[in-house]
Design brief:
By secondary structure, this protein is an alpha+beta fold. It contains 20 helices and 22 strands.
């Protein structure tokens, strides 16, 4: 074959500038594309061997990546099926650009996200190499025997012009050399290439060698003075991928320790072990394998998404799995691998794809089944992990009705004594004592044991139980549970006085008449900030506090939800906190104020009562707290 030159079949001259600048938003993808092609070529040769179509020795099938920084070259070589001259013409010159003009037209009319999505339909994976190169050379020799099977060299400098000629090449397979351009010299750095190989090719099924590594081998027959074998330093080719990742193994053949080791392989900079894992393995009606881990969530709830890695036949695709994994499970860690997930489509298409819907439903079901199994067979362990896993479960219950149906059987409620209850058990626990006069069941809850200690204590003294709802999603969960439970309401233990939260009977009579109440109200209004506090009178026990600060349940709950992104449209964030100052008309100090006519005496008592109420609510700070302390010392004197 004589050297041949020509133009790639393309009518539109600006296809290469588009490839170079816009083919993928992230130029580093070129290495994934080249390695994936090399893996495909290798796997095809293995298949031909298995069916008897190729009978020579396979030999070493390692894919090799080499950087020649001095000459500005990056080379990827394989010992797969290779190509003939005719195949180079077909697969490199024709197929990749047979729809080039159509591609350019579509490309120009789409948004950036849509541009990336349509690339896969035009066979442009190999041409991603021109994003970082000023010239690309292919040397290839087919596995086939007989005529027209000489090795060939293809070269293109990023214009439609190319050359193709016969060369001498002893071994079958393909070698692609990129002459890296000036703007992308970082792809000639060993550290950069190894980083990309570990990111995109970490679990490819064919060994990938890049660089050398040092190991220490024992020297046969030689020992040191302590009797230990002497070692020698040996250099060997460094394989950067794990060709048989754990998710490819059968769950029944995999030990718990292996799952922990694999977690460290996925996340080498994570120090905590996962709480537990779920091994996915299904081949009908779709193909899906993978391992999902429940991570230990930090108490500050800095939840990290983009931790689940999506693979297609062990080729890394993305760590953005929204639309494939249910929203509430995107906080999990791990790997899913499926050839049945369409990759070059928009997210809206993913959400309507039937296979993706089935996969999403399967993952949800597997997670629910795992949690159910842990709850039934390892209840004590499940309770110990509850505080770490409840954010995932609550998110699922809030957002997925089908998950709620399964989770309501194993979801737990924890009270302020640290005891755990299922929904059903807790209802039985409180239904005789916490129904109000209208037969409505009242679930009392606290969000902070220390700040709401006094309110919790008062509730317990009445014989009531109080839940601890201090999770980041608990405000949303409370709303969900109120909708699901019948004749039920949730009330934070400091949102009103306990006798107003669970009204059992009519109030006891007040020791103050209306005129005395008005006198006390006027006296309090001289001291309090009327914009922040509204005065209410209640006829409580003489032993109850003279004044208590409460906050409206509805407004506080709305503000809590807005703080975690739940009701931004309502614009509640700009409103100041407002409170009720509940004055106990039967407390001796309040009746004393009603009897005193001297305003200074009234003010002195009220200041102390008001500051004590604020102190119990953690509202007394700074200068006002300092004044209260000094005034208290004077009273003691």
């Amino acid at each position: 074959m004589t050297k041949k030159t020509g133009n790639i079949e393309i009518q539109t001259e600006n296809i290469f500038p588009i490839i170079k600048k816009f083919l993928y938003s992230d130029h580093e993808i070129f290495l994934r594309e080249l390695i994936s092609n090399a893996v495909d070529a290798t796997q095809k040769l293995k298949t031909l061997t298995s069916i008897g179509k190729y009978k020579d020795e396979l030999g070493d099938l390692t894919i090799r990546v080499k950087v020649d920084k001095e000459n500005g070259m990056l080379t990827v070589s394989d010992r797969g099926i290779g190509m003939t001259a005719e195949e180079v013409e077909k697969y490199i010159n024709q197929i990749a650009f047979s729809s080039a003009e159509e591609f350019v037209k579509k490309f120009k009319t789409k948004s950036e996200a849509e541009q990336n999505a349509i690339i896969g339909h035009f066979g442009l994976g190999f041409y991603s190499s021109f994003m970082v190169s000023e010239k690309v050379v292919i040397k290839t020799k087919t596995y086939k025997k007989g005529g027209h099977t000489s090795a060939v060299r293809w070269e293109c400098d990023g214009s439609p012009a190319y050359s193709l000629e016969e060369i001498d090449k002893k071994d079958r397979g393909t070698e692609i050399t990129l002459y890296i351009d000036k703007e992308n010299k970082d792809f000639l750095e060993d550290n950069k290439i190894e980083e990309l190989l570990r990111k995109y090719c970490k679990f490819l099924p064919v060994p990938i060698q890049f660089g050398m590594e040092t190991i220490y081998e024992p020297i046969e027959g030689e020992k040191d003075k302590d009797g230990n074998a002497k070692t020698k330093e040996v250099k060997r080719p460094k394989i950067v991928n794990n060709t048989n990742p754990l998710w490819k193994k059968s769950p029944s053949e995999t030990k718990d320790e292996e799952y922990k080791i694999f977690y460290k392989e996925l996340y080498p900079y994570t120090f905590d072990d996962p709480l537990f894992h779920i091994h996915l393995n299904v081949d009908y009606p779709f193909n899906l394998t993978g391992i999902l881990y429940f991570p230990k969530v930090k108490k500050d709830y800095e939840l990290q998404r983009n931790k689940i890695q999506l693979y297609c036949n062990q080729v890394f695709v993305t760590d953005s799995v929204e639309g494939i994994v249910p929203e509430f499970l995107t906080m999990l860690h791990g790997v899913i691998d499926s050839p049945d997930i369409p990759l070059n489509v928009s997210r809206s298409y993913l959400q309507s794809d039937q296979n993706v819907k089935k996969i999403s439903g399967y993952i949800t079901r597997k997670v629910a089944d795992k949690l159910t199994e842990l709850f039934k067979n390892h209840r004590e362990e499940f309770e110990k992990k509850w505080d770490d896993i409840k954010v995932f479960i609550e998110y699922g219950m809030i957002s997925e009705s089908k998950f709620y149906e399964k989770a309501e059987k194993f979801a737990l409620l924890k009270n302020t004594d640290g005891k755990y209850f299922t929904f059903e058990k807790y209802k039985k626990h409180i239904e005789t004592s916490q129904k109000d006069k209208d037969k409505k069941l009242v679930y009392l809850y606290a969000t902070n044991l220390d700040e709401q200690y006094g309110y919790i204590k008062t509730a317990k003294e009445r014989g009531y139980d109080v839940l601890l709802m201090d999770g980041v999603l608990d405000p949303h969960l409370i709303n969900t549970l109120e909708q699901k439970f019948t004749d039920t309401t949730f009330a934070r233990v400091d949102s009103n006085t306990i006798d107003k939260l669970i009204v059992k009977e009519e109030e006891a009579p007040s020791k103050l008449d209306d005129k005395q109440k008005e006198k006390v109200k006027i006296a309090f209004e001289r001291i309090i900030d009327k914009k922040q506090f509204e005065i209410d009178f209640e006829h409580q026990s003489e032993n109850d506090m003279p004044a208590t600060i409460t906050q409206n349940e509805f407004m506080r709950r709305m503000k809590d939800m807005e703080a975690i992104g739940g009701s931004g449209m309502m614009g509640l964030g700009g409103l100041p906190d407002t409170f009720n100052l509940v004055v106990n008309t039967n407390n001796p100090l309040i009746t004393k104020i009603a009897e005193i006519d001297d305003e200074k005496q009234q003010d002195a008592i009220i200041k102390q009562i008001f500051d004590l109420a604020r102190l119990s609510k953690n509202l007394l700070k700074g200068k006002e707290l300092d004044s209260f302390v000094k005034r208290s010392v004077e009273i003691i004197k």
